[in-house]
Amino acid sequence: MDLSLLLPMVAAALAAVALYTLIGFIPGTDETSVLLPVTLALVLAGTDPQVVLAFFIAAVVTLNLTNSIPTALVGLPGGVLSAPMIDHALLLKREGRAAETIRKMAAGSVVGTLISVPLALLIASAITPFADQLREYGALLFVGGAVVLALIGKNKVLSLLAIVPLGLLFQGVQALYRQTGVLPEDGTITVSFFLSITAGPLLLSLATLLNPTLRAALPRAGRTPVVITRSELKGAPLSPRRLLTRAELGASATVSAASTPLFFLSPVALTLLMGEASGARAQQPVERSSRAITSMAALAHSTYLAGVIIPLLAVGLPLSPVAVGPANALFNAPPVLTLDNNLHQLLSTSQFVVAVVVGGALALVLSYVLAVRYSFRLTALVTRYVPHEAVLALFVVFVLLLAYLDAGLVNVFAVLLVGLTCGTLNRLGVNFGVQFMSLYAAPWFVAHLM
User: Fold this and answer.
1) Which of 48, 59, 93, 255 could bridge across to 16 with cysteines, CB 3.0–4.6 Å?
2) Residue 248 contacts residue 92 (beta carbons within 8 Å)
């Protein structure tokens, strides 16, 4: 290990905690849309791979923990993984247990992280001897991954039908660029498509506002009240064993261990199915919701961390929904990283483990203390002084800037085209995983269908 990188890794992890604590308290911030662009910018800026990995792990741990707080406090999903928690959070909030719920979710996050990280590293080590065989069939793995993700998605038929047309769209735009000289004959555009898919739902929502009829039909409501009492501003014990019952602790540990080997499945689906199952045995509604929401918080961490650690360390190909979404820049960010030269090849196992431990440990300790002791104070500050619109505007500008840098002005319009297409499909039930896998499988489709 290069000790000179320890301080940059610590600084990167602290920066991730600061940034994603702020973002996580804002309701409706999708994980992919806030993790991918920042990670991509770090990679393209030439940041050391070990520092980037420490940043990303810290960002995941912080964001998934803080994203759950708006859910418990005001019944709004902080991110996609918080959506399955809403019904349970609202029931507990009606019972006056919002403060207790936040602390239980924070404790569940600790359990999920502490179990999934070592288990994911062990699974990755077991898979590593087969990495070369898996890489030989990389293109087919992406095709298979797109099909599997389509079959477990909301709209299975449309997801399956969309795979090939999306591949043709991605390849068609690049072929046009090569014909017109925007790209050299051997050039490719990848970064812009990542951003187009990620920003798709947001771009579609903004485009909807331009239509007077659709804009008039949108629901309208006043400001969401956030009531914080003095008792909720008080601290709480930090030990997870003092915050969780034995049943909650056992359920969180069990689902975290069970979900880690299933890294190739959707984190949202696993969080919903396993979380609901963990609370099903409880007799009282409050007890059932409390156990379920604690397990879901643990699952949010275990599924995300396993989804990036196992494919990246073992194979170097994005073979999970997390890898093809939020963690995509760790696998493929031309010209800095490619599928044949990414963190899998650039980092030794010891360097990989150190980056994961540094990023995960710092983020877990800091974000856990913030959530247990100061979550209500931070929520009051963010909801009062940080406009949601400002965060969205910053993200849109960032996407358009990177699109321009990637291939000039024409690429800005291509990003809008691809983004609106992917946003529409997303709204119809074709998830991010299917769209990202279609992007990777596109060269295979064109080679075998043309």
Assistant:
1) 59
2) no
Tokens of 415: 């990003």
Please state, in angstroms and rounded to a whole number, the distance separating the CA atoms of residues 345 and 448.
Answer: 29
Which range, of 42-56, 64-78, 176-190, 379-393, averages the lowest pLDDT? 379-393
Instruction: Tell me the C-alpha distance between 22 and 429, whole Å.
Output: 29
CA dist., res. 438 & res. 11, Å (int)? 36
For all residues of the chain together, what is the average pLDDT?
A: 83
- To the question of pTM greater than 0.85 for the whole model, the response is no
- Cα distance between residue 254 and residue 279, in whole Å: 12
Tokens coding 226 = 């956030």
> What are the distances in angstroms from CA 242 to CA 62, 238, 256?
22, 8, 19
Q: Which amino acid is at 335?
A: P
Angstrom distance (rounded) from CA 124 to CA 45: 28
Give me the residue label for tokens 């795979």: 163
Please list, in sequence order, all residues whose beta carbon lies within 8 angstroms of the beta carbon of residue 443, skipping any fewer than 6 positions away: 139, 171
Q: Say if residues 343 and 55 touch (Cβ distance below 8 Å).
A: no
Q: Find all residues with CB under 8 Å of 125, minimum gap 6, and list them.
A: 313, 314, 349
Mean pLDDT, rounded, for 37-44: 90
CA dist., res. 231 & res. 130, Å (int):
55
Residue with tokens 């077991």: 126
CA torsion sign for 81, 87, 90, 95 is negative
